[in-house]
Design brief:
The structure holds two protein chains of two kinds.
Chain A: E1 15-16, E2 19-20, H1 35-39, E3 40-48, E4 52-60, E5 65-69, H2 74-78, E6 80-84, H3 86-90, E7 105-106, E8 111-117, E9 122-126, E10 131-136, H4 138-142, E11 156-159, H5 165-171, E12 173-174, H6 175-182
Chain B: H1 2-13, H2 17-23, H3 34-41, H4 77-88, E1 100-106, H5 110-125, H6 142-158, E2 161-162, E3 167-174, H7 178-194, H8 197-209, H9 215-221, H10 229-235, E4 248-255, E5 259-267, E6 278-279, E7 282-283, H11 289-297, E8 309-312, E9 321-333, H12 343-354, E10 359-367, H13 373-376, E11 383-392, H14 398-404, E12 410-415, E13 428-441, E14 444-455, H15 460-465, E15 471-472, H16 475-479, E16 483-493, H17 515-523
Parallel strand pairs in B: 1-2, 1-3, 9-16
Antiparallel strand pairs in B: 3-4, 5-9, 5-10, 6-7, 8-9, 11-14, 11-16, 12-13, 12-15, 13-14
Helix pairs in contact in B: 1-2, 4-6, 11-12
Domain Pus10 N-terminal eukaryotes (chain B): 68-253
EC number (chain B): 5.4.99.25
Keywords (chain B): Isomerase, tRNA processing
Amino acid sequence: MAALEDFYFCPEKDTAFGKSIPPITSEFPSTHRPLVDRFFTRYYLVRQKTSEEHYLVLFHSNRICMVGLSGAHPAFAKGIEQVTCPILKKTDKQSTGEDRKRSAILQKDTTIAVVKCCDGTTYNVPSCVKGKLVEINQNVLQNPSLLSKEGYGYIAILLPKIDECDDIKASLLSYEEYSGKYSK
Amino acid sequence: MLSQEVFDYLKEVGCCTICCLRFLKVRGDEYMNVAKTLQRLGLKDTCSDAENGEESGPTSKKTKPNVCVACLGFFSDEFLAKLTEALTTHPHLIQYECDEFVLAISFPILLNVRQLSLWLALIDKFGQMHGFVSNKQPDVPLKEVSKMVISPKVSQALGKKYGQNGMMISISINHADETAELQKLTEVDQILFKTNCTNNKSKKDKKGTVNGMTRGYFEKNFLPSNIDVDIYKQNIPVPPAIPDSSMIVENIAVSGPTIFVAGRYQKFCRVLPHTPWILNGKRVMADSVQELIVQSVAPYFEVPESKVIFSSSGREDVDVRCLGKGRPFVLEIPDSKRIILPQSVAENMEIEIDQTEKIRVINLQIVPREELVHIKFGEEKKTKTYRALCILNEPATVEVLQKLNIPEGFEIKQWTPIRVLHRRPLLQRPRRVHSVKARVDPNDHKILILDIVTQAGTYIKELVHGDFNRTDPCFAKLIGQDIDIAALDVLAVDLDWPKDVNNRISGQCETVRDKNEIDDLNKS
């Protein structure tokens, strides 16, 4: 029977410039924040259709945007049956991916996916940001339960233009604005 | 004695001995000793005894020979003396500590005109008898012979050897009559080709772009078979007239060879990018690995830092250390003033880089260009060893550690990580993880230390957390719970190049551990 002690890490002694090189274990940051918090800023879009729809944009520091549903979206309460992506049919597969020059440019309100709930209601998910479509998350199409997991539940990845980022951020709700208004 | 007839004729019209031999199709190193070659060919210089042959050592001054009609005195002792003097007194040439050279000589177009005039004269005089025909160059090109004659002289004058990897000496040679004679030639060109419709168009195009004659145009159109020989003869003397003056050295330009300095670097700093990091036109961090190395190496070779090209066998992120034996790199240094790097100088460079305390460089050395294949190719076959500091939400169990000890490795599919997706295309890459060894921090069981050996090009951070299912499988999936990465070190880059050299001769050299030693330590 193996014991945890068998796996104990013992750093090697190594030096540079006459000083010992600190082992990797001494480098553990005192505050280790989760992946989403480290690299992304949360932005929200709430739009009033037949009901109030809540969307989440994870804005990476490199301006990549991951678009999905916010936890307060009514679809979660109803139970999500299926997610489909009409733009995958409309535009050919080349619209995302390898050839960035040929990828489709989406407007803020372009529908990127349709969420169908168990009760039959459907929600058109808007792209939320104007930008090039980089990727559609095949995992969520196959497994809609992922939608509720922040980060993993992204529906599409978009790349906005550098000089439009500030306007895009201003057009969305910041985390503070969103949680103040909707007391999430 | 047919060759003798041609030889005598060429002498008579005013050719130097070397040019006579050129028209007799003498090749290669026969020009090294002209007297001997004459003897071998059974040629007698009957024309005058003033000509001793330029190559036959010290000549006794007799009646001064005319300037050669073919080479315009290029092969004369007088001109060669002028050239070697210009080289030895050249202000920049002496800056180069380089014992080899290559020559590039540019000649006036005038020489082509004179070659054509002699060509026509030889056809008239001898014709088929000696194989002088209108569609075959009559002589061994001056450029070819000049290498044989000039290079040894330059070699002697500069005390350097002729060698392909040496410094480049570009010599522009001109003649006082070039402009006037080319003007004349342009007029002839208009007479000759105005009537010739097939050539009219190309000529006009050429005229439109270049004011006057170009070598390419001349060589293409001015051929005995292509021109009205009578019109040519009416305007340009055949055989050519004896010139009043010899060639002049117009310009000498010198550029050093491109040399390659290789080594390995270790990186101890987690806030140091690989190359200058510029965001929206502003620097994000003051230094970079590239700059810290180049700033200590470039000055010795007297090359501006901006001209030096840095490349390495892969790269690590700004927050990743590179330990162990370090990562191979090479600097491409153009127009270098020096071609050797003594160990004492290399040691000083390494010590200077040490002062930064951010990186360390070892094995600094000059490498031949051919060896760059090691760094530039076969990237997908290389393996890299990493150590990742990872964190779990719950304390690790024996089961988790067993799942993460994978000596046999596994295959993954990795989509381009989100963190580089803004500048790299979206692609799914298959990668091999060769092995994983997992251990736990005795003081905090949530913290794991994973030693990972992978195929080069694997994104390690994503291998740990999975990048939202975009790397599959990832460690999080293998253990069925979230795992994140807090710090990463490169422990080994498995490229055995450049060779080990211990430059730390005077100072004590710290031992540098290699991968095997680390493995040994891990076992204990």
